[in-house]
Amino acid sequence: MNIGDLLEPRAIAPRAGGGSKRQVLSAVADIAARNLRIRSEDVLDALLEREAAGSTGVGHGVAIPHARIPGLTAVRGVFMRLETPTPFESLDDQPVDLIFALFAPAESRTEHLQALARVSRLMRQGDLRQQLRQARTAEAIHALLAREAQPSAA
After folding, report:
1. Helix axis angle, 138-148 to 126-134, nearest 10°
2. Are residues 61 and 41 in contact, defined by beta-carbon separation less than 8 angstroms?
3. Quick one: average pLDDT of 11-32?
4. Tell me, what CATH number does 10's domain have?
5. Radius of gyration (Cα) for the chain, nearest Å?
6. Which residues are catalytic?
7. Residue 154 lies in a domain
8. Range of the domain at 97
9. Is the residue at 153 inside a domain?
10. What is the C-alpha separation between 114 and 136, in angstroms, rounded?
11. What is the pTM of this model?
């Protein structure tokens, strides 16, 4: 699974506003709706339902919200870098400024979990997080994520 295949540059917001957790998730839902041609309200409801089960803030300023969405045919992503870090009930109690949201077809199981594991491993890389925080354009962020996600040569 290649991160570049599930995350298009137009689904990246390099300088998004912060606010409350709900406001951030609403902004993620709006980007997903525009890029995936689904209703923003449906995406937000699915994200909020998932968050009610436990925060997707994984630490180090990163959150990986995710949801299954009826009507999708493949796993897709949205990436946002927040200008103002937002409290997200993260594991380390640190506010979040890097959001990598994943959306999967309602019936998806394996592909959804593989994408989630891949993004989680990727976002644990401290050097990459720092580069993402410094990148200025959607294209630069996409290039960093696609490059970092390539399997290493043996």
Report:
1. 160
2. no
3. 94
4. 3.40.930.10
5. 14
6. 66
7. no
8. 3-145
9. no
10. 28
11. 0.92
